Amino acid sequence: MTANTPEQEWRDRYTGALMNTFGPPKLTLTRGQGAHVWDEDGKEYVDLLGGIAVNALGHAHPALVEAVTAQLSTLGHISNFFASEPQVELAEKLLALLGTEGRVFFTNSGAEANEAAFKLTRRTGRTHVVAAEGGFHGRTMGALALTSKEAYRTPFEPLPGDVTFVPYGDVDALAAAVTDRTAAILLEPMQGEAGVVVPPDGYLAAARAIATEHGALLWLDEVQTGMGRVGRWFAHHSPLVEEVAQQPSRNLTPDIVTVAKGLAGGFPIGACIGVGQAGKLLEPGNHGTTFGGNPVACAAALAVISTIESEGLLEHVTVLGQKLRDGLAADPRVTEVRGEGLLIGLDLASEASAAVTAAALARGFIINNPTPGRIRLAPPLVLTQDDVNAFLAAWPAILDDALGEHS
Ligand SMILES: *Cc1c(COP(=O)(O)O)cnc(C)c1O
Predict the structure, then answer these.
(1) Scanning 92, 203, 233, 403, which has the fewest C-beta atoms within 10 Å of its C-beta?
(2) Which of 271, 286, 241 is nearest to 113 (CA)?
């Protein structure tokens, strides 16, 4: 028997100690800076996935490091028997960014934000929820009940019931599924895990009208799309309104918005925001959490939001995202590029997204393959023009490596 290499030993330690839910890790990363990370061999990568749309400020941003350090050395955790300043400030800030009155419930993840929202919808006295095929809302039992993908659901049935799935983007199908016993319509403004699927213009506004007609709540899952990812605070906000003048009243108004991923730039947090009366449906004793609203997580989120504001990142994301999309679309082996800001999905001419992702990694770029034919990019909002140039320069060669040379 030959002795194990250090790589094999390390792999054995990983597989021997961690549940096999994610498959083998692609790399072991040791540090990060901006939109760059380094592996254990010192090899550098441009991180175009950002911890799956999480690392809004990239890696090791001083504003985030300072906010977390200062809060942790002042008051780290207190339970929800007590209030803290960062928690109240963050709730007020989220409502201000949303441009509505409402109430916030803090959680530690996206799935938990959706669990809170799911329970909130039950307080209407109705149970029926209409959600979209291809949607993703998390892996806990409630969030899974609202997620259509059979492979995720089947091993865990029975799940909470009374959920109808309709094709995403189809107004007629939505109108036909919603009735006067529907508690809520649940939609992502763009479907992230499906590979960044953008609905037709007017779809969300139609969903708003259908919900209102039947007295149902409109619940938007902005876990992936929210907090600046698409170049504005929330994907359901009108890009025109954000550009021209801050006129929140012209935005579509949902009843529930859930956020998480990028909210605290990598520090675990989620939020369920109930707009207007929907913010009052959960009452004392209805729901709870030990960690949710933790002062450190809230301070981290406040630092992320103020840095996005002070560094002008919404504008930056809009401009850079367009350049990235244009550059990617220039190769004929890419059949479609979708998304807004720095949430980008593209379709390949063949089902080769795993090979393309592996080829990108070998050339020093972290990208993601959410489906066999689709690539997703969700880089840090602080990605630079140099990073984009480097990736676009390597892109044809990445496709050559994975698909064979383009003639
Ligand atoms: C990632 C995601 C979730 C789940 O968030 P977790 O933090 O992984 O629980 C829910 N909804 C959407 C749209 C997501 O992208």
Answers:
(1) 92
(2) 271
* Atom nearest to 192 CA in ligand 1: 15
- Stated pTM of the model: 0.96
CB 105 within 8 A of CB 282: yes
C-alpha 167 – ligand 1 centre gap (Å): 20
For residue 356, is pLDDT > 90? yes
Tokens 């990694």: give the residue: 361
Q: And the tokens for 297?
A: 């997580």
Question: Which tens digits make up the pLDDT trace of 256-309?
Answer: 999 999 999 999 999 999 999 999 999 999 999 999 999 999 999 999 999 999
Q: Whose Cα sits closest to atom 10 in ligand 1?
A: 137
Q: What is the mean pLDDT of residues 212-226?
A: 98
Ligand 1 contact via 314 beta carbon (within 6 Å) = no
Position 250, amino acid? R
The rounded Å distance from CA 244 to ligand 1 centre is 31
C-alpha–C-alpha distance, residues 346 and 281, integer Å: 40
Strands across the sheet with 343-348, in order?
334-340, 343-348, 374-377, 368-371
Strands 217-221 and 182-187: parallel
pLDDT at 245 over 70: no
- DSSP bridge pairs for 259: 271
Ligand 1 near 115 CB (within 6 A):
no
Coil, strand, or helix at residue 399? helix
> Ligand 1 pocket, 193 CB below 6 A?
yes
Q: Which has the closest alpha carbon to 219: 172, 176, 180, 273? A: 273
Q: ω before 158 within 30° of 0 (cis)?
A: yes
